[in-house]
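Subject: design request, 362 residues
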């Protein structure tokens, strides 16, 4: 028997309160994985566990059908020092549900789980469905969604739950982090030195500040390059041999990460090394049926500058969820209860159009 949205919403909010009360820093999500598994068991949905990732397939799974992934994460960052509330105490005040991970991405996760529970028993769907409540998203760790891709059947399309105000992020920038070195001649500060590594940084920093990548995306705009860290020296009277820089590059969908690497290695006026090339940009066609379903329900499309587990996927993927990304990682994090209610309803209705081509179940 199909569960009503009001029943699922009440139980989803209850789960979110449990998750908030359970610390789940990246790599330490054992207990939240248990809470998620217990919730699925109460909904009579069989599940499997791989590390701290919990996953489940729809009841009427049929070999040969394309596979739709519903994914969000249950790990959190650590609470910052500006919190005035207990980050692990789920409280509701003036319609806001407060707590660490409420907005990023607990509200998205429980809303997707409620939508999955709604569609779990349905027959005759156009796609099989797999739900993955994943770990290690916040630190892009090795044991999160990326580790599940070897276990799951090939995925044809995905919804990744992140706070987007339930608008449709049809593209997301990738990320490459570079470590850079600017060298010079070490010396005593009391003696002349025309090869000071710190002074040598001045034209290098100016080069990075003014560098522009040629290709501009219609959805994601320019590639954004930012120097984010600088470190040098051990004491006041020693000119250091080198200065270490960190360069953060947010990559649009006109480039692969390898192309970004090749360009900068060829042109940058200093030594560079990329930490990883695996976090590529991701997108879904604006006319994809999943996107059309959301547009038909009045949702807007946009390109997202922030990174998510979409970066692990090679299939078309849509980032979509309740909450506002500007609240993520903030002190006294919260999500409106109404956003969760609307999020569950919209997930179900978008999937109704996508999976059945009708609105009879909305």
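Subject: RE: design request

Done. Sequence follows.
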């Amino acid at each position: 028997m199909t569960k009503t949205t009001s029943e699922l919403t009440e139980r989803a909010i209850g789960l979110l309160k449990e998750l908030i009360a359970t610390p789940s820093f990246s790599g330490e999500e054992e207990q939240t994985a248990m809470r998620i598994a217990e919730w699925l068991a109460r909904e009579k949905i069989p599940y499997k566990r791989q590390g701290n990732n919990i996953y489940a397939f729809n009841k009427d799974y049929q070999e040969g059908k394309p596979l739709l992934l519903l994914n969000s994460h249950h790990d959190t960052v650590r609470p910052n020092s500006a919190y005035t509330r207990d980050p692990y105490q789920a409280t509701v005040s003036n319609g806001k549900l407060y707590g660490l991970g409420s907005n990023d991405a607990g509200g998205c996760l429980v809303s997707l789980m409620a939508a999955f529970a709604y569609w779990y028993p349905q027959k005759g769907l156009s796609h099989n469905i797999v739900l993955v409540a994943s770990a290690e998203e916040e630190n892009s760790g090795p044991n999160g969604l990326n580790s599940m891709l070897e276990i799951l059947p090939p995925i044809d399309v995905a919804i990744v739950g992140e706070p987007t105000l339930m608008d449709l992020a049809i593209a997301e920038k990738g990320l490459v982090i570079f470590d850079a070195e600017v060298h010079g001649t070490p010396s005593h500060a009391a003696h002349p030195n025309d090869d000071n590594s710190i002074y040598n940084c001045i034209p290098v920093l100016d080069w990075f500040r003014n560098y522009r990548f040629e290709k501009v995306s219609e959805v994601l705009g320019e590639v954004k390059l930012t120097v984010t860290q600088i470190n040098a020296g051990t004491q006041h009277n020693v000119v250091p041999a080198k200065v270490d820089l960190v360069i953060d590059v947010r990559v649009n969908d006109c480039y692969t990460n390898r192309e970004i690497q090749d360009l900068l290695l060829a042109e940058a006026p200093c030594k560079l090394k990329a930490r990883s090339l695996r976090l590529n940009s991701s997108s879904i066609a604006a006319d994809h049926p999943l996107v059309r379903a959301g547009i038909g329900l009045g949702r807007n499309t946009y390109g997202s500058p922030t990174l998510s587990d979409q970066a692990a996927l090679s299939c078309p993927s849509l980032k979509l969820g309740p909450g506002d990304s500007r609240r993520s990682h903030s002190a006294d994090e919260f999500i409106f209860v109404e956003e969760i209610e609307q999020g569950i309803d919209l997930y179900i209705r978008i999937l109704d159009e996508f999976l059945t081509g009708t609105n009879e179940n909305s």
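The chain has a mean pLDDT of 96.
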